[in-house]
TrEMBL record:
Residue ranges of domain Aminotransferase-like plant mobile in the record: 126-207
Protein name (record): Aminotransferase-like plant mobile domain-containing protein
InterPro entries: AminoTfrase-like_pln_mobile, MAIN-like
GO terms classed as biological process: meristem maintenance
Length: 246
């Protein structure tokens, strides 16, 4: 079992087909924004202020202060701040500028929690006690693997997205159907992850074989910490080329 582009499109409603999610360095002296807080102010309308106490919209008794990461460069946004700040019961009364700011915040939150979470673990701390996480059976990788290994064939819905399901979703969810089975690297700034649908072909109504190609043997994930000035379009150029040839 694996997360596929089909899952991302049909569950999250995100467009999956298009240019690689990477660009040139735009923050720093002589660039579009002088600092990351300036970037946030422009695209989101605000950034976390260290001295401001923020209120949890879901629990008025909970409040917190936030800052943009531990480093002096201030390159991170707290996911909880995004959720608290941009949550609204309705978005109908927003003007166009504020609406797009909320859209950007929502996409950032999805990327940081579900699609390409980083190594900070800030989202994990909200759900589990980090100190004892390895002692909890529900929080360990081996526990999940054991549960999956114990499933019977009859307990798995191999093709969850039936024609009836697909007929009820928005057009954007089906716009990238042509690449659901593409075996390509997915590029998101510092991160590259391989999309390997050939390991879960039963999800697409196909018959699995034992001739599954291994992932790139020399593949290694990159840690983006301390690389604020790295031009990731150049760094990941080989992977971007593979994605563009999908």
């Amino acid at each position: 079992m694996s997360i596929t582009l089909q899952d991302v499109a049909l569950i999250l409603g995100l467009q999956i087909d298009g240019p690689a999610l990477v660009g040139n360095v735009v923050v720093g002296a002589g660039r579009r924004w002088a600092s990351w807080p300036d970037c946030c102010d422009d695209l989101l309308g605000q950034h976390p202020e260290r001295d401001v106490i923020y209120q949890d919209p879901f629990n008025p008794r909970v409040s917190s202060k936030f800052r943009m990461g531990q480093a002096q460069a201030q390159t991170c946004l707290p996911l909880r701040w995004l959720r608290w700040t941009f949550y609204r019961d309705s978005y109908l009364d927003l003007n166009e500028i504020d609406f797009w700011r909320h859209v950007r915040a929502y996409i950032l939150f999805l990327m940081g929690t579900y699609l390409v979470p980083d190594t900070s673990g800030c989202e994990i701390h909200l759900r589990w006690n980090q100190e004892f996480i390895r002692q909890l059976p529900t929080g360990s990788l081996s526990s999940y693997r054991d549960e999956l290994d114990g499933l019977l064939d009859s307990q798995v819905i191999w093709e969850p997205y039936t024609s009836e399901v697909r007929s009820q979703v928005a057009d954007i969810c089906l716009s990238g159907e042509a690449i659901w089975l593409a075996r390509v690297p997915l590029v998101c700034w510092t991160r590259v992850e391989w999309h390997l649908p050939d390991r879960v072909v039963r999800q697409f109504g196909l018959i699995p074989t034992t001739e599954v190609q291994p992932m790139e043997l020399k593949f290694a994930r990159v840690d983006g910490r301390g690389k604020a000035d790295t031009d990731w379009m150049v760094y990941h150029l080989p992977y971007i080329g593979l994605w563009e040839d999908r």
